[in-house]
Each structure stands twice: as C-alpha cells, then as structure tokens.
What we know:
Layout: H1 14-22, H2 28-34, H3 42-60, H4 64-70, H5 80-83, E1 87-94, E2 104-110, E3 115-119, H6 127-131, E4 136-139, H7 142-153, E5 162-165, H8 167-172, H9 179-185, H10 199-210, H11 214-247
Parallel strand pairs: 1-4, 4-5
Antiparallel strand pairs: 1-2, 2-3
Helix pairs in contact: 10-11
Amino acid sequence: MLKNTYIHIPGVGKALEQKIWASGIHTWDEFLEMEDRVLIPSVKKARICEGIKVSSSHLAAKDCFFFSQRLPSAEHWRTYSLFSDSVAFFDIETTGLSPCRDKITVVGIYNGNEVKTYVRGTNLEDLVEEFSRYRLLVSFNGARFDIPFIKSEFPEIEFKQLHIDLMYPLRRIGYGGGLKKIEKLLGICRSEDTDGMDGFDAVRLWKKYEKGDLEALDLLVKYNREDIVNLKTIIELTYPKMVENALKI
Length: 249
C-alpha cells in the first residue's frame, strides 16, 4: 500500500490522492508513466514526480524515519507489507493505568519468529537496545497507553520509527472494541489458561508474583505473549481489507 500512497508528498492531501486513484493511477510507477491522466497543474505534477523519486530512494534504503515523519500517524499502517521484515509487535503490562503513578511490569516483543520478554527487576532495561533494532512497531492502543508508559520509564527511547497502532485502522474496517473482542470476531482463540483474562488480571498476577508466586509470573508472561503473537495474526488477516477500504473511491 505504501507504493499507492501520495499523501506523504508535500502539497498532496487525501482529496488529491483520491483524485489520482480515480484517474486509474495507483502506484508510483503508474504515475510516472501516465501523469497526463491526472488533471492537475503541471507544476503540481512535477512536484509529485519528484516526491515519488525521493520516496523510492528512501524506500530502497529502508528509511523508516523518512516515512514516519512524512506520513500521518493514522496512515502508518500503509507501510506494513514493505517494512514487515523489521517489525516488533509489542505490548506492556503495568501495575495500573497512569504512567505518572504506576509502573511497567512486563514487556513482550515479537519479531514474527521469536518472542522476547522483559520483566521488571530482571531485564527490563534491555528494552532500550531492543527497540532500536526495528524499523516498524505494531501495537494495539499503544499510542495512548504503551508508548507513554515506556517513555516515562525510558525517555531515551525516541520512537522515531514507524508505528502502527492497530486500534485505529481496524475501526475503519468495522472492528471496534478491545483486542480480545476483535480476536473473537476474527476467530482467534486464546489458550485455556488465559481465556477471559484482561488487564486487571495482569495487575493481580503481578501482585501475586511480588509476594513470591512464580507461577503467577509464568501466567502473566503467557498472557502477554499471546497478546503480541495475536497482533501479527490480526494484521495478516485484516491488512488486505484495510487496503481495499483505503483504495475504494
């Protein structure tokens, strides 16, 4: 979908982008070949052509920072198919809802093949280096919850890379509500141990762990692991519909 995108080019808004699509031109290459189809001033066409060439160069270099700055945050999902080779699906558990009063307990990161878990008091500080390895981050409600918590504890993490907060593009294609509800709508099942658990259970399990219950931590980590693994399943199932919805004229 990124190669169908024009709104990151200066001077191009959604209305003009849709006008380009409506003319039968979708990809950057098609625009360069058939720009005469688009009835806009030649100066603007030239600016778009230049923007496409610059974008192609940055894409070839896998420059996530260029696109993260140019694309509206709500449209970062468009980059998924071309940056999924360097993706971190992530989710945090906390002692409560306020980054000012509460703290992170567990962070899970899934790169599509391997799950890494970071636990307070054990290896949580390793997050700083781990996040720097990825060009694309994927979360659910991460913009409002996870990232503010992480920034509060680790201000040195800048989060300049692309970030897809799945909650928003999913709403646009009819999947509203929380993560667990969406999983059920998509037919994604949790394990028997974690089925029905929510964030409040995660807080309770951490408190039990602090009192010496190691099994409580094991269950909390398992719950977190399913969150991040399921994020990959969700985006793989819904991305084609996101593209179809965006290109619908």
